[in-house]
Amino acid sequence: MLKIGGDARRHFTHPKVAGVIRLGLTEDFARTVLPAVLGLFTRQHPGFSFEVECGLSKIMFDGLDGGRLDTVIAKRPAGRSGGERLWVEPFSWYGRADTPHPVPDPVDLALIPEPSESRRVMLDALRRAGRPWRAMFQSHSFATLEAAVLAGVGVTAFGRQMHGPGVAELGEDSGLPPLPALDMVMVQAARGTSDATDSFCDLVREAAILGVAPVPDQAAG
Predict the structure, then answer these.
(1) What is the pLDDT of residues 153-184, one digit of tens each?
(2) pLDDT in tens, 78-122
(3) pTM assigned to the model
(4) 3-state DSSP call for residue 162?
(5) Distance CA 208, CA 35 (A)
């Protein structure tokens, strides 16, 4: 579990505000950075209500564009520009510890359904490498994908902060192609947002600067 130390707490000096925060998040942010940021924010600014959607990046951005959400923190979808880059998320292949090396063809995959960014980078990498594949397990849940991997149903790709115990990172000797890193970005609605939302976003930015989340230059290096 991520924690923010005493120095960080003293650094956050936002004025007390009240209101509703409507967030769209991907599960990787929700499972890693959100607990620390949310805990500190609610202690400093009691009386808020949060309306949070958690799902695939493209769907979250559709909610932002449609006015349902005020702020999205997610992987940048292919073809979308803009937004504030918070950090770069490295992606790697994962499987059971006894996954054969090299991984044989066709590559059996555990996948998130479309329009998943992690699915896109996996399939693009396999196509470029000329590797045949087949979708053996599909689910919107990271927990069930991990279960499929641990059961030996297939391999998958996670951001390096996301994988749980028992899932092994598959290196170059697996024969699987390298995967690109993805930008984690924060985008606020063009129509403007509430003081409450602005304060929360300030805290997310400062969390990245203070190292609660990977800083872009460090993660990219």
Answers:
(1) 999 998 876 666 788 999 999 999 999 999 98
(2) 888 888 998 888 899 999 999 999 999 999 999 999 999 999 999
(3) 0.80
(4) coil
(5) 14
Residue 162's region, left for phi above 0, alpha for psi from -120 to 50, else beta, is alpha
Count of Cβ atoms closer than 10 Å to residue 118 Cβ: 25
Quick check: 187 and 72 in contact, CB under 8 A?
A: yes
CATH number of 91-174: 3.40.190.10
Q: What is the CA radius of gyration of the chain?
A: 19
What are the structure tokens assigned to 20, written together?
């509703």
Distances 74 to 30, 71, 109, 171 between C-alpha atoms, Å: 10, 10, 23, 26
CATH 3.40.190.10, the chain: domain bounds = 19-88+182-210, 91-174
Its CATH class, for the domain covering 19-88+182-210, is: alpha beta
